[in-house]
């Protein structure tokens, strides 16, 4: 366990702080650009909230930056003069690597989870994958941090971080976007309540069978009459989304039918 300060008391920072506190991890203090927000978080964490980051950073062997992607570098430069020689600096941005922190002991640690508020983070982060990138020493120390909050560490090595983060973004964004389009098409109120069980069943299929075996729908079944009827019912914006989704599904299952799909969609 390392003496730790958390800079940033949003959903991720507060949730990680609560989980670390439960693991008896020593927190020397927290800081946020909103001191009122830091004071509120400190009530859950049992540590001091500081109006400036310098003091808790100077006392910590591990500095956890849970600020926005855009603020990571500016906050790091602000605290850089206060860092101890042995301090490990960790940020939780999914789109940035460790190189944005200009210190040998830098770690990019991204929890692969959606955390809209701290309570959700406390529930969801244990058992979730945390990707890690950094030097061997930074990785070793980061592993202890991830395990303390119950996460599943995954070292990315030299893999392309942009591809990893794009994949994660697609999963979340496409799912929510699908529901937004479907809600607008739904002929009655209660679209989400009606469609969520379908989505949960599909996710279960995905977990048990994988993507290709879980794909379904009229285009996959070559039911072109139904595809044509869907097309006539769609708004222009929904048509763009529908075409992209169905083309992607066929690309992974029945590539020979892509030309047939475009023929149907021209009618």
Distance between the termini: 65 Å
Full CATH superfamily name of the largest domain: NAD(P)-binding Rossmann-like Domain
Our count of helices gives 12
Q: Which percent range fits the helix content?
A: 40-55%
Give the percentage of residues in beta strands: 5-15%
Task: Please render the helix and strand layout as text.
Blueprint: E1 4-7, H1 11-22, E2 27-31, H2 35-45, H3 54-59, E3 62-65, H4 72-79, E4 88-91, E5 106-111, H5 118-124, E6 129-134, H6 136-148, E7 152-155, H7 161-185, H8 191-209, H9 211-214, H10 224-233, H11 236-251, H12 258-265
Parallel strand pairs: 1-2, 1-3, 3-4, 4-5, 6-7
Antiparallel strand pairs: 5-6
Helix pairs in contact: 1-5, 10-12
């Amino acid at each position: 366990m390392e003496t730790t300060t958390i800079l940033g008391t949003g959903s991720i920072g507060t949730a990680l702080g609560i989980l670390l506190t439960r693991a008896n991890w020593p927190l020397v203090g927290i800081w946020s650009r909103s001191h009122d927000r830091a004071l509120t978080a400190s009530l859950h964490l049992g540590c001091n909230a500081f109006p400036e980051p310098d003091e808790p950073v100077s006392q910590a062997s591990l500095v956890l930056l849970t600020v926005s992607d855009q603020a990571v570098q500016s906050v790091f430069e602000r605290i850089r003069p206060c860092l101890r020689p042995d301090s490990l600096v960790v940020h939780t941005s999914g789109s940035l690597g460790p190189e944005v922190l200009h210190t040998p002991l830098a770690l990019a640690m991204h929890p692969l989870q959606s955390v809209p508020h701290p309570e959700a983070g406390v529930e969801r982060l244990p058992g979730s994958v945390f990707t890690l990138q950094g030097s061997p020493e930074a990785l070793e120390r980061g592993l202890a941090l991830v395990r303390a909050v119950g996460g599943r560490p995954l070292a990315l090595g030299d893999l392309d971080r942009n591809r990893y983060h794009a994949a994660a973004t697609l999963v979340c964004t496409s799912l929510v976007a699908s529901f937004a389009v479907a809600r607008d098409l739904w002929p009655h109120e209660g679209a989400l309540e009606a469609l969520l069980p379908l989505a949960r069943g599909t996710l279960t299929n995905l977990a048990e069978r994988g993507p290709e075996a879980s794909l379904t729908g009229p285009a996959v079944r070559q039911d072109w009459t139904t595809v044509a009827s869907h097309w006539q019912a769609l708004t222009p914006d929904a048509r763009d989304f529908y075409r992209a989704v169905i083309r992607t599904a066929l690309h992974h299952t029945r590539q020979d039918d892509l030309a047939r799909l475009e023929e149907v969609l021209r009618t």
